[in-house]
Amino acid sequence: MGLVKSRREEAVDATRAALLDSAVRLFSEQGFAATSLDDVVGDARVTKGALYHHFKGGKIELFEAVFQEVDLRLAERTAAAVPDGAGPWELVRAGLDGYLEACADPVIRRIIFQEGPVALGWARWRELDGCSARELLGSAVQGLLDSGEIRPQPVALLTRLLFTTLGEAGMSVAEAADQDAARAEAKALILSLLDGLRAT
Predict the structure, then answer these.
(1) How does pLDDT run along the chain (200 residues), one tens digit per residue?
(2) Who contacts 71 (Cβ-Cβ below 8 Å, separation ≥6)?
């Protein structure tokens, strides 16, 4: 009996994964408004009933799940750019490189920066944006403080300000015609802002 249940759960998980994979691709290629639920279930080869089983709120709930999935990918790529044993400043520089490079990815650019604010509305977009990355940023800030690399600051406020700055930098990279130049400019500016907080 337990084996049957396990297989059923695996099938349910596979259906949800197929829906998410299709939705990520279609929303990033066609946009939120131009993508219908029929498009998604057709591409995923499941029924609309299966979609509503997993995403009872329909299209907007499905997009929220897509947004959170892509946001997690952004955080994972940022974390993966940091070498093991990195010191506080190396962690910040490498993480910043990874984040800005990921922002140029067509899927991340379209879902996070272009479709997200429109589909979710500004308030909900701000609420969901960076949920996966805030903890990474907070840890990086805490590392700079604990090592004495920067002067004492209110951690929560500094993290919030830097998170907003990173979001704007990411959007500027995503929208830039010359993304290499935009990444270099954003990195230099953010590092110069942090340099201003260095302990003397």
Answers:
(1) 455 556 767 777 899 999 999 999 999 999 999 999 999 999 999 999 999 999 999 999 999 999 999 999 999 999 999 999 999 999 999 999 999 999 999 999 999 999 999 999 989 998 888 777 888 899 999 999 999 999 999 999 999 999 999 999 999 999 999 999 999 999 999 999 999 999 87
(2) 112, 128, 129, 130, 131, 132, 133
Does 89 lie in the same domain as 12? no
Total domains, the chain: 2
What is the per-residue DSSP string for 41-69? Answer: HHHHT--HHHHHHH-TTTHHHHHHHHHHH
Task: Determine the Cα–Cα distance for residues 62 and 15; give it in Å rounded to an integer.
Answer: 13
